[in-house]
Design a protein that fits this description.
Layout (H helix, E strand, L loop, with lengths): L1 E2 L5 H9 L4 H6 L2 H11 L2 H12 L5 E8 L2 E11 L2 E9 L8 H15 L4 E7 L3 H9 L3 E11 L11 E3 L2 H15 L21 E7 L7 E7 L6 E7 L11 H11 L5 E6 L3 H9 L3 E12 L4
Length: 301
């Protein structure tokens, strides 16, 4: 088991992409992953990552398990705020039940701890029983269930007077409400890795609010990558008033993603959120798939 080398990248990426499950397929994330993997294999970015790794400053670490020089297991660990996010844990079909996945996750924990992170985080399909059993065995615990909804992509009018760009106080209220929904013990900067899509090259982020300044009933953050990829809306019912009383905020945020050329608009509903589910149904949304966040504390406290 070792760090990925450039000559490993082809088979490594093929094996990592094979870990795609119902969640990735339903949300259309496989195409984005392929594009990101291709960019990593370029000489410029690969050299930068290699230098940062030598300096112990790399925000991304990729580990490969090999047999006779061929990759048989993969994992990727990404440093995000106070936690380290684990993704692409995969083992070749003919090499499963040999402890490889367990060793990969243990290595990810070691990297996260060495980087000074307090928590490890991952997301798994709610129906993936073997993976859930593995994480439980390693001392991880389940957090909130995330129910993913898809909204229709028809264009919509831009906002009426009841909808506005969110101010900082609105964003803080929305963030706090979502953290409560997650049922976790720490306040993450990012509620879901899809928020990072809006921070990537060619991406965009907008935050909208409905209701009085400082007392919005609903706050929605939209995140989009490049045209042709999925877009995401992260709504939060704040409890500060009637959420989206005219049903226009979700429509407004969706319009922005449609105008950016997003294919597929998805909404993660964190935990039990009956008001939000009602709003999504009213907007023509349909439930697609469920996932779970799993957490593990790795600092000494």
């Amino acid at each position: 088991m070792r760090e990925v080398r450039r000559r490993d990248l082809g088979p490594y990426f093929a094996l990592a992409l094979a870990t795609s499950g119902p969640l990735d397929e339903a949300l259309g994330l496989r195409g984005r992953a392929e594009r990101q993997f291709r960019s990593v294999s370029g000489p410029g970015l690969w050299l930068l990552l290699s230098v940062l790794r030598l300096l112990h400053r790399s925000p991304v670490r990729m580990l490969v398990a090999t047999e006779d020089g061929a990759p048989v297991g993969t994992t990727v660990t990404i440093l995000l705020g106070p936690w380290a996010y684990v993704a692409a844990v995969g083992v070749r079909d003919d090499r499963r039940q040999r402890g490889i996945a367990q060793a990969l996750v243990r290595w990810a924990e070691t990297f996260g701890h060495a980087a000074g992170k307090s928590w490890m985080v991952l997301e798994v399909d709610a129906t993936n029983q073997p993976a859930r059993a593995l994480y439980a065995k390693l001392g991880w615990g389940p957090g909130a269930t995330v129910h993913w909804w898809e909204l229709p992509g028809e264009p919509a009018e831009r906002p009426p007077s009841t909808v506005r760009k969110a101010r900082r106080s609105d964003r803080m209220l929305g963030h706090a409400a979502s953290v409560r929904s997650l049922g976790i013990e720490f306040p993450p900067r990012y509620l879901h890795p899809c928020e990072l899509i809006g921070r990537s090259a060619g991406g965009s982020r907008e935050t909208w609010a409905a209701g009085p300044v400082g007392e919005p009933g609903l706050v929605v953050r939209s995140c989009a990558g490049v045209a042709g990829e999925p877009g995401f809306l992260l709504p939060a019912v704040t409890g500060g008033g009637t959420p989206d009383p005219e049903g226009t905020l979700l429509s407004c945020a969706r319009a922005g993603l449609v105008q950016r050329g997003c294919r597929g608009i998805f909404v993660p509903v964190l935990g039990d959120a009956p008001q939000l589910v009602e709003l999504l149904r009213g907007a023509g949304g349909t439930p697609k798939v469920a996932s779970e966040f799993w957490w593990k504390r790795i600092d000494a406290s």
